[in-house]
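dumping this here before i forget
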Amino acid sequence: MTTSDKIRTNNEYVPGIAWAAHRGASPDTAARAEELMNGLLPPGQFRMTDRQPDIILFMSGGSERRALELADPERPVLLLSIRGNNAYAAATEVMAWMVNNGRVAVLSDALDAYESGLIRNWQKVAGAMQGLSGIRAGLLGTVSEWLVASDVSAVTLRDRFGIELCGIPWNGLPDYSREDPDPALMARFSGQPTEGLEDAARVLSLLRKAISRDRLQAIAVECFSLVQQRKVTACLALAQLNAEGMVAACEGDLASLAGMMAGKSVTGVAPWMANTTRLTDKTLILSHCTASFDFMSSVHLQTHYETGYSLAIAGRVDADCVTLFRLNDRLDRAFIAEGRVISHPQIADACRTQAEIELSEHQIALLREKPLGNHLLVVPFKCEEIFRLLCRYKNIEVIN
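structure:
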């Protein structure tokens, strides 16, 4: 797998910055705007432009019309103002116009945005979301029949995130048993002779062949038919792909795939896609068999929970604090929450990797009363702020 096959964060994205001032502004206004931006972003990490800006810097009052001329209708924009010179008043007027006309914008004092990290986060989100446009994702098989709230149409994926979906039927691929075992997966468990490991590694070789053939940068695999018919799982294959930076969802869950792709692009980590297994008044138990290998410690292999066949991953989620994320099937609503891992259960009748997470009573109530689907995505650190900004950028409603 080459670097171009992976979804990466866009920490090196160079945002376009435009400035706006009244018509009689001093000739040195452009130089002052660039000098101010040099204090907010390192030199070389932005470019001054008057076309399709990611950020508009207000240098004075009376700049409203100019700002509207600069703003691209198809691109969300961060509206920043200097302090004084009626700049914030102008930015506020433009923000009101944006809201009234259904445009996506965020308003802030420039220094406040620098100190809070908003400018850097905007740079990450803008780069990440533009980087998703045109990416090819594959659906191997179909969406699992029980995922009645998680089937996202190809049109929705393209319209909301610019992701192109490629359907791949299982019968369009060779028999996995004819593949050589994947060396990376075999090396990971070298010295641990495990029955079924070679077959699991052959499944990974098959997936790599499909990824290469169809130029995919993410994949969702409907794997239950494979384990039922051939008594081999894709759990280890998906965990290995996620550990390598290739977003891979199971059960053909396209809502989770879209969320994993967006999450990976802004955090650098492929989230763990997990089942909602149990809710109490203050805690949530999650479980699933395909957590990325670099997400866990104390990894060992067990049989697949539902069938008792082949192999699945049982590991300890290596995090103290986590962020939960979930998109609905229209990709226009999201659940976001930060929580604390308080235990690692070993429930016999649940998928093999398990974590108990402490949440607020309100967050638990949202999961009980307004769930967006069974699967939740888990990132192993706090990043609620950037997920909320991502949703703001894409005009996604965060349920509260």
